[in-house]
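Anyone able to model this chain together with NAP?
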Amino acid sequence: MIIVTGASGNLGSRIVERLLTVVPAAELGVSVRDATRARALADRGVRVREADFTAPASLGYSMEGADQVLVVSAEIRGDAAVVANTAAIDAAVAAGASHVLYTSHQAASADSLFPPQVVHAAAEAHLARAGVPFTALRNGFYAASLDVHLAAALATGQIVVPPDGPVSWTAHDDLAEAAVIALTRPGAFAGITPPLTAGVALDLGDVAGLLSRLTGRSIVRVTVSDEEWRTASIARGLPPAVVDFSLGLFRASRQGEFDVVSPALAHALCRAPQGVEETLRRLLGDRGIAVA
Ligand SMILES: NC(=O)c1ccc[n+]([C@@H]2O[C@H](COP(=O)([O-])OP(=O)(O)OC[C@H]3O[C@@H](n4cnc5c(N)ncnc54)[C@H](OP(=O)(O)O)[C@@H]3O)[C@@H](O)[C@H]2O)c1
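re: yes, here you go
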């Protein structure tokens, strides 16, 4: 049986939908925190069990009978994320899985200026020591993350942020397809994968240019210092911890941590991955914005 965690989330739900096109539902299980959110999967014959990475005792039940487990990294910040993700990896091994997969990040590094990359590096190291065949999917940066800039860009015609750098904006759908390949094509991805990214890395100036072309409006990128941005963000009501988290992202991106692309995803998909334009079109469409 294949077990997928995080199956109610954006990535996990896409992975499960794709898996259901190639694996019988009876051979698929999901580990979710709230089974009511996965009722539609249960109705289709998928085994749905509840577990929380922060309550390790719950994980054995959700991973019972697993041959492979895909641990979708939990959306948790700080040291707690390392504890939670490694607990899920340990539970997969304890359940007897012969292949444990983990959704890491293209920029996973113990030295990263962006804390989630340190978490991923720790999870990868833990996985490598776990004693079972493993795959750490080094996913590119979610293109959907750009949504955070859209409201202000559309309202003011500006993306006002600290200096940044190019980022390997990659679509959830393509990363979900890669995860399914890793689960269903033996040996396709073994160990720590190469960066699984779209073909180009774009900075926010490039993104502003794309948004201008797609919307027919003038959208420009305005650079402010870290401190100016921090002060303005807190004045807008953002919690300081959230602001500092985002500042880590800008600092990491401008030192080039996300400026990495590789043909590995294209090779696995046997096609070019989606560019950031496709995701921007969808995000704009979701906001009811007409796109050129
Ligand atoms: N590559 C990137 O650029 C990038 C960017 C942001 C995040 N990420 C990582 O990729 C993961 C998946 O992304 P996504 O877009 O699917 O995010 P998402 O839609 O926010 O989903 C987050 C997932 O984390 C799960 N989760 C949170 N706390 C948990 C806990 N205590 N125990 C078990 N599961 C827990 C949630 O489970 P429930 O469904 O049960 O709520 C949910 O499925 C994120 O969680 C994050 O670690 C990667």
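The first strand starts at residue 2 and ends at 5.
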